[in-house]
# Entry
Amino acid sequence: MIDFELNETQQQIKSFVHMFAEQMVRPISLVADRDHGLPPEFLARVNEMRNAFTMGAIPKEYGGEGDGAGGKDKKGGRSANLTAAIGSEEMCWGDAAVVLTLPGPGLGGPPVRSMGTPEQQERFFGVFQKPGLHWGAYGLTEPGAGSDVAAIRTTCVKDGDHWILNGTKCFITNGARADWVVIFATVDAAQGRAGHRAFVVEKGTPGFRIGKIEEKMGLRASETAELVLEDARVPAANLLGGEDSYRTKEGFMGAMKTFDSTRPLVGAMAIGIGRAAYEHARDFVKEHYLLSRPVPRYRAIAERLARIARRLDAARLLVWRAAWMADRGLANAKEASMAKAYAGQAAIFACIEAIEVCGAPGAAAGSDHAFLDKWFRDIKVFDIFEGTGQIQRIVISKRILSGLKSF
Ligand SMILES: Cc1cc2nc3c(=O)[nH]c(=O)nc-3n(C[C@H](O)[C@H](O)[C@H](O)COP(=O)(O)OP(=O)(O)OC[C@H]3O[C@@H](n4cnc5c(N)ncnc54)[C@H](O)[C@@H]3O)c2cc1C
# Structure
């Protein structure tokens, strides 16, 4: 049974992260957007508190807070995914690029955790216990393979106790700064998904280099890089799970399983931005409309606010359900896609409506509404990465229809 009451740990994380977002993140948000990066002193400060922010991404046995980070639910079950969703919404209310740039394994964490052997997990998660700033990254997308994951063309060929990788990955978050990147490659493109392999490619690997850094419309403070593999020599010990695990199509399934826990999180992040825009518009209306505008117009504006709030609330419920299911190890591909698809749309709606509610100044970047301009640019990508809205709807419809005997 889903319980909407947050446990003590979750309440503490929610209020701590909100306070951090309000006092530390918002003040640097516009400058970080302008400068295309976070100030180094801010990153160092965040790094000191990394266990509070990685929210379970690093398992306990490798020095993180693992499952314990979310506290336990009333029956003693895991709640790390739900807690991460709650924390991510609050942090993105401050600035979404900060969440993506937090030191830690990032999107590279889930595949190492779900596919890696105990030795690999110790090696790659161990990196984050060393002094200094460390990142992991996730390299699946290629110039010709985004939504169609099965179409990746980066090749891997076994050569003694190494694999030789060739190909290009694009749009990789934290790709240039990462200590290691989980790279998906294929032994034989004709085999489709069965040919996929996942490697941890470490910085400094011969033949592995950073390509261009993307200039983006939004999330500008988050680094998005192209990665080039030219006869890159990757030790066989870096093949996630070892060779035997791929006899059962684990490579592709590993990539897909990752999405079941990360898609609700991306939904939660979108809600954080949408909520920020909504609250901005709500406060503006409270301040400017109540006494100075004719009543019919005020009512119409108030209804618009109610519509935004309703959609954001519905999105949060979908996100919490999908995260709750992930915590229990329940199959949640459909629910994760529903959460991500709906939250992205609800948050885009919130950002557009917030600008309109504030009138012409709402679209003026240099005005009191400068944040609205930024959130409007930031939000679109939440309907693109981790699978576009169209792809989520395909996943949902396939799951719905596969349950029918005939249609
Ligand atoms: C800021 C940012 C950060 C990112 N970070 C990462 C990262 O860290 N790691 C990583 O691997 N990738 C990352 N990505 C890549 C992202 O996951 C892809 O952009 C996304 O999967 C879409 O792929 P694509 O851009 O190739 O679009 P395409 O797949 O070419 O799609 C183009 C359009 O066609 C639609 N479409 C495609 N197939 C179908 C279909 N079968 N039916 C209906 N419509 C369809 C799509 O919905 C979309 O509207 C990032 C992207 C961005 C913008």
